[in-house]
Design goal:
The structure is a single chain. The protein is mainly alpha-helical. It is built from 15 helices and no strands. The radius of gyration is 21 Å and the shape is globular.
Length: 397
Amino acid sequence: MRHFILSALGEMFRGGTRYRAWIACLVVLFLFGAWGYRRQLQEGLVVTGLSDQVSWGLYIGNFAFMVGIAASAVLLVIPAYLFHRGDFRRVVILGEGMAVAAVSMALLFVLVDLGRPDRIWHGIPLLGRLNFPASLLAWDVIVLMGYLLLNIATPFYVLYRRFEGRGPNPSVYFPFIVLAIVWAIALHTVTAFVFSANPARPFWHHAALAPHFIVTAFASGPALIILALRAIRRLTDFRVGDGVITTLGRILTVTMQINLFFIGVGLFTDFYHEGTHALSARYLYFGLNGLDALRGWIWAAIVMNGVATAILTLHPLRRRRWFLDIACVLGVLGIWMEKGLGLVVPGFIPTPLGEVFEYTPTFIEVAVSTGILAFGILIFTLLTKAAIGIEAGRARR
């Protein structure tokens, strides 16, 4: 075991000039975020754009998006282990590494959103008092921590067995695979419930939010995985089969189409017979009382999603590498904009008292978010480097 861990660590930090420059760049961005968080700790949340009226912003929007990225790892797990696709089995470890990085970022985004982070221990299972099962936040902590452990333990076992030159025993890991699949759906469902269980926020308080969350997860996740696999195939000697990209592209096409359907259904429900419950949606899409900070943001997101869906739906375009890459980038950005600030902030506008108080992220929030994103990419890079080294046989007992 000790030799396995040391070999994996050695593989993580072994590389050429380009790899070291990439790691250094991520470390610099992380330190930039740490500087921003230090400012936030010193001066308080007053350095953010948050207020009593809008208490969730960029951090919680990024949290919701990252939970979806984490849940999407099952789209590699299901073909690999349930349908016995050998090409998917080669890359499933990379998807689980992305899940670990995404959950880590999600937890950090919640941490930096706390005014008193020193009290985070209250939310740690077996250490703090979670107020379980009454609190939905307690459920969210449990599913996040459980999913993180599942996506660490299963790849660890598989890679350790391959490091020893032996194949993994299905009777050992398969039950955890099935549990992880169910857990991934529960993960994003519980996250949606954190929003939809607020009757005072009609913008979130509807039954379609949970399935919409899952659809956006299964759209943005495959798009990001496709981009990552293309980069890995181009920059390393690790073989990624074309069948993996093709299958993920088909999944992405269907989920992007369903996402547009959900957006259309929401617009119809809010505006066909518009009432006071639709004020948040009116603010988001058209502005309210002359205030429209998010109007351009959400329409840009819809245009990105629409263009990405059109490219993916037209098969001749989707088969072309660059068009698929463009669709993936637009899909990830569009869903991040829609599911981040486009979902979180309008839920607070107007307030239950009818106040319209806009929110704009500050430089400190952008800096902290950049640092967390760099930290997550660094985790994914290091885990991928170690996994590829073991899979390629460079690290063996």
